[in-house]
Write a structure and sequence with these properties.
The protein has 119 residues and is α+β, with helices and mostly antiparallel strands. The protein is 26% helix and 29% strand. The protein has a single domain, classed as 3-Layer(aba) Sandwich (Cytidine Deaminase, domain 2). It is built from three helices and five strands, in the order H-E-E-E-H-E-H-E. The termini are close together. 26% of the residues are buried.
């Protein structure tokens, strides 16, 4: 894993904090880090709810990025609470693709099993 991916992994994994907010909301079992073209890193955690109002970690991080005035992404990484890197779900991939024509060039780490011992 190159240093940039390692940095994103460490930042995302550092945000993992699974806990219950209420009987209807559980958060923090998955975290994501987004590296923008400007070199900024935004993070987010999953928000699981008993209804469809929750949000994946990737969309949470991307929403924070957009809130901060950016919309060009270089890399996306999400990690499960056990340290496994996981690919974005279909809704997140659709959200990423709707960022514009440069979205096709976004790099997404989808698996870290080959180097998990090095993380």
């Amino acid at each position: 894993m190159n240093e940039e991916w390692k940095k994103l992994y460490d930042i995302a994994f550092g945000k993992i904090n699974p806990h219950e907010i209420s009987e209807n909301m559980y958060v923090g079992g998955v975290a994501a880090a987004v590296l923008t073209k400007k070199g900024n890193i935004y993070t987010g955690v999953c928000i699981d709810t008993s209804s469809s109002l929750g949000m994946c970690a990737e969309r949470n991080a991307l929403s924070t990025m957009i809130t901060n005035g950016e919309n060009e992404v270089d890399k996306v990484l999400s990690v499960y609470k056990d340290g496994t890197v996981m690919p974005p779900c279909g809704a997140c991939r659709e959200f990423i693709m709707q960022l514009g024509t440069t979205a096709k060039k976004i790099q997404i780490l989808i698996d870290n099993r080959s180097f998990q011992d090095k993380c």
